[in-house]
Specification:
Order of helices and strands: EHEHEEHHEH
Strand order of the largest sheet: 2-1-3-5-4
Largest sheet: 5 strands, mixed
Mean pLDDT: 82
Radius of gyration: 16 Å
Helix content: 25-40%
Number of strands: 5
Number of helices: 5
Low-confidence stretches: 167-179
């Protein structure tokens, strides 16, 4: 079976809580229970690699990352970004006219713009984010963000099980949930 869902942990493990996405990806891989048709990987700061992966025909891409939204540290949030806002940046990225192509400092928005510049467009992207407590030069998550790893992993599993179940139902000709 071809993977239909990509779960991508992103962030820099050398910047404390910014390593949240990778930690969630590692937890998902270690604990098991990831349905068939779901690829889970820790991309870390490899934004260009993630952009190339997102050119594949996934039905759903779930990014897991530290996200500052002004909430208390450790708050897990589900975000559905407007990918259309990256359309304008895509030609500049493709032409190399943008700092977005710095491979070691690509944000998820930069990755989306690069994917679009290469002619791709994922069908659906969700972000499971966690409010960081400390983004400082050190390895390891702060205690409050470490506690949120399990909640984020459960959130990701709920999302992908629902999506894979809906896709499998439609493929088998059975009525599935409508989105």
């Amino acid at each position: 079976m071809t993977d239909r869902v990509l779960v991508a942990g992103v962030g820099n493990v050398f910047l404390g809580d910014d390593g949240f996405g990778g930690e969630v990806a590692r937890r998902l891989l270690a604990d098991g229970g990831v349905p068939d048709g779901v690829k889970v990987e820790d991309y870390g700061i490899r934004g260009v690699h993630l952009a190339y992966e997102m050119l594949e025909p996934y039905d759903l891409v779930v990014l897991v990352d530290a996200v500052s939204r002004g909430e208390p540290p450790g708050t897990v949030t589900l975000i559905e970004p407007d990918l259309g806002e990256f359309e304008e940046a895509a030609p500049h990225v493709a032409a190399g006219e943008s700092p977005l192509v710095d491979a070691h400092s690509m944000t998820p928005g930069s990755v989306f713009a690069l994917v679009r510049a290469m002619g791709g467009r994922p069908s659906r992207v969700l972000v499971v984010g966690c409010e960081p407590a400390e983004v400082v030069e050190r390895m390891g998550l702060s205690p409050v963000v470490e506690e949120a790893v399990g909640e984020a992993a459960r959130t990701v599993l709920d999302l992908v099980r629902e999506d894979v179940g809906v896709t499998a139902s439609r493929a088998a000709g059975r009525p599935g949930k409508e989105e």
